[in-house]
Amino acid sequence: MTRYVALLRGINVGGNRKVRMADLRALLSGLGHTEVATLLQSGNAVFTAPERPAAAIGADIEARIAAELGLTVTVMVRTAADLRRVVEGLPFEVRDPAKCAVSFLNMPVDRDRLAAVDHAAFAPEELVPGERELYMYFPDGLGRAKMPAVLGRHLAAPGTVRNWNTVTRLLALAEGADHHPPTG
């Protein structure tokens, strides 16, 4: 059995595409996943399942959300080990965890497309590519960031952004000995 983290893209933002975390937990349990917990209201879930490709698990969750909730939602899935790699691979110092973020992509970073992005267009914000993630730092905060709009026009892969506090809390939940308490 493997611990997984599911990151749902674009739910519960601005009152749109509402998904209750209790419904998400029930949906994941209905897929046979165990030790299901959610974090916050932004579509973060941790669960245990037999080892399978993360993309297949994500596709199953997307299909179940469409069937049960009538929503089209992109779901990025990582193993706890993948998330540990992301945290350990942070390429810069966390000056403020609320201003540091990771964009999780559903495919490897397309470095050629990323090279075509004018990084000066979002300076002094920082961007460093990982494997299937982009590490970002927003000195003025995520709410004022220019980078997400610029990247959205240049990258072919959908992604979902989580701030550093959320990433590290998800890792702790995924690796914790007590996987039971649902939150959010």
Automatic annotation (TrEMBL):
Database matches in InterPro entries: DUF1697
Signal peptide residue numbers: none
Cited SUPFAM superfamilies: SP0830-like
Pfam families linked: DUF1697
Name used for this protein in its record: DUF1697 domain-containing protein
Top-rank taxon: Bacteria
Organism: Marinactinospora rubrisoli
